[in-house]
Amino acid sequence: MARKVLIVEDEANIAELLHLYLEKEGFETAVAPDGGKGVELFRSFRPDLVLLDIMLPVMDGWSVLKKIRETDKTPVIMLTAKGETEDKVNGLEGGADDYIVKPFEMKEVLARIHAVLRRFGVEEESGGEKRLSFDKLVINLDSYELLVDGKRVDTPPKELELLFHLAASPNRVFTRNQLLDEVWGFDYFGDSRTVDVHIKRLREKLEGVSDAWSLKTVWGVGYKFEVVNS
3-state DSSP helix/strand/coil percent for the chain, to nearest 5? Predict the structure, then answer.
């Protein structure tokens, strides 16, 4: 069955180019010319991946991404003419899975799409453990739930994936670049602030819950999920 890609782009020539190229490569596509239509089509078309422009009429890309992330973890690649670090950080913090700056080569778009779909496919098909349990903490990637002291805590997908990645290798130190590569799945051009922001938000949810584990900063290196050996 062909993978489905939703293109949310108001520039008709870019949308048509993406549509034609992806259809030629074997994808099934749908095109939305504004953010409102993008949300509607996301619900009816049920894509495997979304290419989402930021500057859109009716509802901008950030708002569309937020709507998608309220109910779904379908991968989203942001498209924008802006290349500033702040936009990249905002996109990743909001739950985007990759980021492409216009003007772009179609081969790059295709490579990014395949990389993101492969990452999600491996995650969905792998038989590895997707549920980790510690004292007063359960991280479940099957249901994308975080239980803290028995209570469900709302957590964005990328925060949960980052926590799971750290906790799956207790006491191992990860550099920021390693986490960007292994959790986000691509080289984020050395912009590591998004990792710090995600760690800060996780700490707000987890601080003081248990003495058996903690999220630790290893100064000058990165982060680790420290487990106290009893």
Answer: 45, 25, 35
